[in-house]
Amino acid sequence: MKNKVITPQEAIKHIQSGNSLMVGGFLKCGTPQLVIQEILKSEIKDLTLIANDTCFVDSGRGLLVANKKLKKVIASHIGTNAETGRQMNEGTLEVELVPQGTLAERIHAGGAGLGGVLTPTGIGTLVEEGKKKVTIDGKDYLLEKPIFADVALIYGSKVDPLGNISFHGTTRNFNTMMAMAAKTVIVEAETYLEEPMNPDDVVISGIFIDYIIKKEG
Q1: 10 phi and psi, to 5 degrees?
Q2: Which of 18, 22, 34, 52 could be bridged to 152 by S-S, CB 3.0 to 4.6 A?
């Protein structure tokens, strides 16, 4: 069996400047933290962040914004991080705002190998500018293209040596779909199990997980 456990310092060797980076979590809930801290110490920059939000200016994904590690953000919400809006308005950070359900389905489409998602969300608004419109049974839809990343950083409440993951409550959020939508997937384990977990408890199969980081303490 391949040993998937690595340190945060080893994890950032799989992240290069200019990469697209998915980061799971909803604000602070279910957010991996350890690799983000290592990115902040490194020379890595010009990342494209794909996430539900940019968290807070002093936490998680928000630190990538505050430390100017990003060139672009694709997210549903940036209102809790004033630095994101400030950099966007001064033109130093590109921001693509995507309705939350649409973002989730675009990531799911990327992981499933689909060509895109048809959704009525955004019809008649600025969201539809530059996008293909499809009419089905008299109703208009926008074709939203799939999202696939170079690297995904996700969180797991419990992770076993195979990379199988289970979650506590709403910590699963975007982590589940992001696990399938990146070339390299790194999971941060809140609790690392020394033995394989009960198959009935598995939410994300270890086949999608390349590396595991054990949280110390």
Answers
A1: -75, -30
A2: 22
Domain-wise residue ranges, the chain: 8-115+146-214
Q: Which of 111, 49, 105 is nearest to 77 (CA)?
A: 49
pLDDT per position as a tens digit, 77-110: 999 999 999 999 999 999 999 999 999 999 999 9
Query: What is the model's pTM?
Result: 0.95
b/e map 187-214, b = 16+ CB within 10 Å: bbbbebeeeebeeeebebebebbbbbbe
User: What is the rounded CA–CA span in Å between residue 186 and residue 85?
Assistant: 28
Q: In angstroms, how far is CA 70 from the centroid of its own chain?
A: 14
For residue 71, what are its two tokens?
């060139």
**Which of these, 216, 197, 187, 142, lies nearest to 5 by C-alpha position?**
187
CATH number of 8-115+146-214: 3.40.1080.10
